Amino acid sequence: MAHVVIIGGGFAGVWSAAGAALARGEADLRITLIAPDEHLVLRPRLYEPEPELAKVELRRILEPIGVEHLRAWVSTIDTGRRVVVAGGEEIGYDRLVLAAGSKLVRPSGLPGAERLFDIDTLDGARRLTGLLRDREDYSAVVVGAGFTGLEIATALAARGRVLLVDRSEVVGGELGPGPRKEIEAALDELGIECRLGTTVTEVGDGYAVLSDGTKAGADAVVWSVGMRASELTRQISGELDHLGRVPVDRRLRALPEVFVAGDAAMAAFDDEHTVMQACQHATPLGKVAGYNAAADLLGVPLRDFTPGPYVTCLDLGGAGGIFTRGWDRRVMASGADGAAIKKRINQQIHPPVDDAAKILAAADRVYLELPFFPRDEEPAA
Ligand SMILES: Cc1cc2nc3c(=O)[nH]c(=O)nc-3n(C[C@H](O)[C@H](O)[C@H](O)COP(=O)(O)OP(=O)(O)OC[C@H]3O[C@@H](n4cnc5c(N)ncnc54)[C@H](O)[C@@H]3O)c2cc1C
């Protein structure tokens, strides 16, 4: 029987599995997802005070749709022989979807780097909340005032003192000027001190040294900068982008028998942009890549990846949230309205469980429905 193999159990891998099962219908086709953990980790929710809630059992998604789960790490992809090596065992495939995601890049050569905390993985987030749980008045240094750094800094500010450090001269540099005023106001409101044009040069027991010479007290130093796609991408292409991603065509194909999805894929969003390493793109990329991998074997027409509108939604803790639209990130909602939208999005990213019809219907609806908000109708300022 023909075999679709998917590497990765994140958003892209899970939705690839559902996409492949959707294309399979009643046909004979074996689908296997390989990932080491028993859970899909909802990484966008790892800044929350209870990261333990940010996970869904893979079994509850894969079993109802007839997808096997092999709990293993893939070390090798041999595209010539069409096999992957997982847990020391060779597994043959007819079509492969690489959805092995991304990882935070930890700084090399930083003294005390082993003391850094992060919220990149469930284990990382558990370690941080484990340290600070039940403590009032702790101090934390957050390195990086980008999307993740802002969310964890504003979350930590609920019960502690937070110093936010960034090499850039502005906060939220990667988000552009669109939401900057609202971000700065939120940091102000929460009493978060910003040290811009600065970085951390040493992490010690209870302190961090900054590049301006300051020694700041810190119960935890949280690193949030630098994401890179899985190393497995190197085994698919010699032409990776600066994030280590594999270039794919509009059907998300990288090689005749290999599709790539999620944070590992460099897919075009439009003529100017490639997709972001974000679950809002990993989810539809997965749905299309998995569908196409199966459709290709079954002689069914393939689907093009045609992204929905680009939005961002940032949780700013006690200062609410910000919801933006477009690549210029126009602020459509802020404060309590922005926070309400973020809450809805954080629920919407949970895949349906235990119900094949619901899972397959969701795989067929490639894009999340955007939350309604009145200012959506207003022309851009
Ligand atoms: C703190 C944080 C906040 C975020 N907030 C947002 C947000 O608000 N909005 C948004 O859109 N995005 C957000 N993101 C980004 C989003 O989480 C990622 O884009 C998304 O998780 C990517 O999904 P993925 O499936 O491609 O990869 P991943 O989530 O990285 O999953 C990869 C999977 O592959 C498995 N894997 C890796 N290597 C191997 C291997 N060798 N063998 C087998 N399995 C392997 C892993 O175990 C995992 O199951 C956030 C990320 C973080 C860390």
UniProtKB/TrEMBL annotation:
PANTHER family: 64 KDA MITOCHONDRIAL NADH DEHYDROGENASE (EUROFUNG), APOPTOSIS-INDUCING FACTOR 1
Similarity section: Belongs to the NADH dehydrogenase family.
Pfam families (UniProt xref): Pyr_redox_2 (PF07992)
Domain FAD/NAD(P)-binding: from-to ranges: 3-282
Record key words, sorted: FAD, Flavoprotein, Oxidoreductase
Lineage of origin: Bacteria, Bacillati, Actinomycetota, Actinomycetes, Streptosporangiales
GO function terms (MF aspect): NAD(P)H dehydrogenase (quinone) activity
Cofactors that this protein relies on: FAD
The protein's name: FAD-dependent oxidoreductase
One Gene Ontology biological process: aerobic electron transport chain
